[in-house]
Amino acid sequence: DLHPSYLLCCFFGPILPFYERVIFACRDDPCPVKLNLSVGAYRTEEGKPLVLEVVRRAEQQLANDRSCDKGYLPIDGLADFNKLGAKLILGDDSHALEENRVVTIQCLSGTGSLRVGAEFLAKHHQQSVIYVPNPTWGNHPSIFTLAGLSVQYFRYYDPQTRGLDFEGMLEDLGAAPSGAIVVLQACAHNPTGIDPTLEQWEQIRQIVRSKGLLPFFDNAYQGFASGSLDSDAQSVRMFVADGGECLIAQSFAKNMGLYGERIGALTIVCTSEDVARKVHGQLLLVVRPMYLTPPIHGASIVTTILKNSDMYKDWTIELKGMADRIISMRQQLYEAIQARGTPGDWSHIIKQIGMFSFTGLNEKQVRWMAKEYHIYMTYDGRISMAGLSSKTVPQLADAIHAAIT
Ligand SMILES: Cc1[nH+]cc(COP(=O)(O)O)c(/C=N/[C@@H](CC(=O)O)C(=O)O)c1O
């Protein structure tokens, strides 16, 4: 009979995903000028996390409201949050909302929304195959596999052009079995920073609908990519406008800076009000044994801001400020690389969008940069542009130049 601790140590083998190893390597590096570009969390020009001013005002308002309590939320979360969150992604004029075909439940940020959606699909959807982009966010395969779905990949990134492998994507989606689930990152694709154009989204929509595939949008960066909440929602709204079904995982971690509040929502757009009612009931059966009910504070902050037109407007201004700073970091890094005459075409740095840039650096170069320049990024060469500042751009450009030449 095995000693219990022996059993445990059998499981605690080298399970850390590659990016966690990077984070620990960076954390343990004593160098005073180390640069952590591995985590997708916004940092200010001073390299600090940012609590939005409008979030502080909302929290102050909540703290002063003596009618607020800390009781359990319903299983599907804060009703106002669900309503306002659905409108934010679907648009005020959404027919699906008008026809009551939409189910939205508050979940534990984007990750929790993806997981609840995946558990629901594993139980109720006739196809258990889920296609994700190659490459995709490192956590996607685990979320879907642990929920009981079988993960397949569709081509997404072309290393030759450092752009979208659009033909390959359409071919793989065309070859997917009818009813298969397809994960589509709504904007600011992680890790590549490459999004389809609106014309390409329309072609993707046509093939998804003609093949009877089920789109599952991961909407983790709405407003963070272009600075506009509506522009970044266009891909989702295209699909919803055609009357078909889709799932949408929403996160307020990045666009409202509420990373640690774990606030997001799962929206399922159904074909009828009656189906929506049944889906809602089944979602409650997934959530209750998983975490009973979601946390109240983050949902209250988001609701306070979305409900108040002045606060909403102030939020959009701060959100655009974050997006603009990232776009400026792209431009500065590109110009710094150009100024050093680093070989190769680096225009992908300014063509890509959102939090990340897929540099094209290989693992050997990434490891060398960590060792020689104390600059940390994920081993696939992804850098978080939000981790850069005008001060640190030259340090990164020098390191890239040295790694390439
Ligand atoms: C595409 C995508 N989807 C969902 C999430 C989950 O976000 P949530 O905080 O659950 O709402 C993330 C987080 N990505 C960053 C965080 C991480 O992976 O640790 C990242 O890629 O760095 C994504 O990049």
Structure summarized in a few sentences:
With 405 residues, the protein is of the alpha/beta class.
Report on this model:
The chain is an alpha/beta fold and 405 residues long. The chain has 16 helices and 13 strands. It has helices at 4-11, 18-27, 53-64, 79-90, 95-98, 109-124, 140-146, 166-175, 198-210, 234-241, 273-291, 297-307, 309-339, 348-351, 363-373, 393-404; strands at residues 35-36, 102-108, 129-134, 150-155, 157-158, 163-164, 181-185, 214-219, 246-251, 263-269, 356-358, 375-376, 382-384. The strands form 4 sheets. Strands 2-10-9-8-7-3-4 form a 7-stranded mixed β-sheet, sandwiched between helices. A two-stranded parallel ribbon has the order 1-12. The termini are far apart. Bound molecules: the ligand Cc1[nH+]cc(COP(=O)(O)O)c(/C=N/[C@@H](CC(=O)O)C(=O)O)c1O. Ligand KET binds at residues 39-40, 109-111, 137, 139, 185, 190, 218, 220, 251, 253, 259, 264.
Structural class: alpha/beta
Instruction: Describe the main β-sheet briefly.
Output: 7 strands, mixed
Shape: globular
| Separation of the first and last Cα atoms | 57 Å
- The unreliable regions are none
